[in-house]
């Protein structure tokens, strides 16, 4: 039976204040994203005249047309997609193999090995030793230089280990062994099907990391045909390397050049972020069961 409890005026006022604050914070967070989206569909000349856009000013698709005409953008998209898929698959495989043994009580020395993994979160050899190792292994200018050095994240592995500890009961493991399962069958047939929420969260974490990564590519890759999208985006936003993409002549008017650059900048940012914006809603429903359970030991 539900009780109809009347709320006091003070409680209603508090709810109203909280609602206004939440709406205000949401607007502050969302407006930069909306501004980039509106600016990408706006006339570049009007972007300079209207620093605060509430809708596309002078709607046009010329900036996107210029982006679609550029072959390097599509090369970067294909490379980034390849690096993200291969890298995330390796990450999930290694993280599962590391987290599952450390989550089982019968694994002797799991505390020591967990400490070794945690040690790498605070101390590392640095960029130069890592570069020299990749060079000696012959990984420079290959996809493996981008996906193998970071094959496992100690932080993500600890989260997944905690999830296995809290969601995979020891009784289930014991009954599986009584029925004749070995360790690999236990992991493949029982643990993984029950751990899809945390695996989905890890796919999102690792996938976003690979999609946004540009520093490793900048260090290890020299062939432009292997550059990811974010490296091309860096060249455009940081180095202002627009001439080839926009078809700007050296003798052109400076004001017109700047306007073309401004529209291209926003269009490329939207295109680079679009796959992640589409992926996040598909996996967000797993967050409560995945990251929260994995981060709190019951």
Percent range of helical residues: over 70%
**Inertia-based shape:** flat
**In this structure, how is the largest beta sheet organized?**
none
Percent of sequence in beta strands: under 5%
Q: Give the domain tally.
A: 1
Distance between the termini: 32 Å
CATH class identity = Mainly Alpha
Give the low-confidence spans.
246-252, 294-298
User: What oligomeric arrangement do these chains adopt?
Assistant: single chain
CATH superfamily: MetI-like
Mean pLDDT: 80
Give the strand tally.
Answer: 0
N to C succession of SSEs: HHHHHHHHHHHHHHHH
What CATH architecture would you give? Orthogonal Bundle
Structural class: mainly alpha
> Any idea of the CATH topology?
MetI-like fold
Number of helices: 16
Tell me the Rg in angstroms.
25 Å
Care to describe what's here?
The protein is mainly alpha-helical. The protein has a single domain (62-295), classed as Orthogonal Bundle (MetI-like fold), CATH 1.10.3720. The protein contains 16 helices and no strands. It has helices at residues 9-40, 44-49, 62-69, 71-103, 110-119, 127-136, 144-147, 154-167, 170-178, 183-191, 196-212, 215-220, 229-237, 243-246, 254-283, 287-295. It is flat. The model is unreliable at 246-252 and 294-298 (pLDDT under 50).
